[in-house]
Write a structure and sequence with these properties.
By secondary structure, the protein is α+β, with helices and mostly antiparallel strands. It has one domain. Helices cover 44% and strands 16% of the residues. The chain is built from two helices and two strands, in the order ββαα. Strands 1-2 form a two-stranded antiparallel sheet. The chain is elongated, with a radius of gyration of 16 Å.
């Protein structure tokens, strides 16, 4: 059995104290399985997107409070989704047509 994973990463304040500065952000990494999914199908991509969203939500929990918490978590989730798009593009072969 082959387990296929995408490792997503974001720089977040998820593990820092509430008084952490924006420059002191910590890297957060999570693995998302795409085993058993047909990434060429709409349904397979939808399921993978849901897994990525769930993983990003769980991994990007800030200890900050108030607006800083909301900002940190949104930024972390956006970075993880962006990283997922890049990694997914590397996995998905692209068909190129010739103009001949």
């Amino acid at each position: 059995m082959t387990i296929r994973l995408i490792a997503l990463a974001a720089t977040a304040a998820a593990c820092l104290s509430p008084v952490a500065h924006a420059e002191e952000r910590e890297r957060v990494t999570v693995r998302v399985s795409y085993a058993g999914l047909d990434l060429a199908s709409v349904e397979g991509r939808r399921i993978l997107d849901a897994r990525i969203d769930r993983a990003a939500f769980n991994a990007c929990q800030s200890r900050a409070t108030g607006l800083l918490r909301i900002s940190d978590e949104r930024r972390c989730r956006a970075e993880m989704r962006s990283d997922a798009q890049v990694r997914l593009a590397q996995l998905t072969p692209v068909a190129v047509a010739s103009a001949r």
